[in-house]
Fold this sequence. Notes:
The chain is α/β, with parallel strands linked by helices. The protein contains eight helices and ten strands. The strands form two sheets. Strands 1-2-3-4-5-6-9 form a seven-stranded parallel beta barrel, surrounded by four helices. A two-stranded antiparallel sheet has the order 7-8.
Amino acid sequence: MRAIDLNADMGEYADEAQRDIEASLMPLITSCSIACGGHAGTAETMCATARLANQHNVRTGAHPSYPDREGFGRRAVTLSSEELRLSLTLQVEALKGVLGLESLQLSHVKPHGALYNDAAKDIALARVVASVSAGAVLVGPSGSALEAAATEAGLSFAAEGFVDRLYLASGTLSPRSEPGAVLADIDGRAAQALAIAKGEKINARDGALIVNADTLCIHSDSPGAVETAQAVRKALEEAGIAIRSFA
C-alpha cells in the first residue's frame, strides 16, 4: 500500500489563538517540526509542543533556522559556516534536551524558511545542516542539495511536498511575495496533496510538474490549517493511501 507522512511546523505561535490551532492540528498529523529558538520558539513552547506530540504519538523533529527572530527566519543571513553550525547546533541540542524530558527522540531535522530554500540550492549550506542532523532524518526537497548532503553524510532523507504552496515548474516554491503563493482553497490543497502522494502532475505558476515526496507539509500558520489537514486526510484515506510517519 502506498503511504505518506503528514507533517506540520509547530511551536511558532505568538498568541493563544495560534496555540489552539496547533493543538487541534496535532492529532491530524504524523510528524511535527518544532521551532527551537532561531526564528521562533522558547523553552516553554518547545516543552508544550513536545508534550502534545507525545500525547498523540506524533514524531518530533527540529525546525532550526537562521538566527533571525525579527524576520521570522524568512530572510537570508550572512554567516560563516562555523557561525551557522554553532547556531544550528545550539537550536537542535536545546530541543533534544526538551525531548528527553518527555522520553522522546529527535526523529528528523527540517530547516526553516530562508535556510531551507538556501540550503536546497547551496551544497555548502546543506552540508552544515547535515552536520547537525546526525542520527536523524534530514527533510528537504527531492533532488536538492539537502538530499545530496544527506547522502554524503550517510543520513536518511525524506523528500517533502507542500500542500498549501504554489510551485514553479522548476520545483521551487513561488515566492511568498507573489500573489497566490499560498493556496487559499482548501479543496485545492487537498487535491494537490493527493496528486503529490500519487505521483501525478500538479499545476504550477508557469506549467506543471511532479513532486516526489515522502512527507506532505501543512503550514500551521496558513489560514484554515486544521480544515486543510482534515480534508487532506479524507482525500488520502478515500484513495487508499496510508498515512504514517516516515520515521
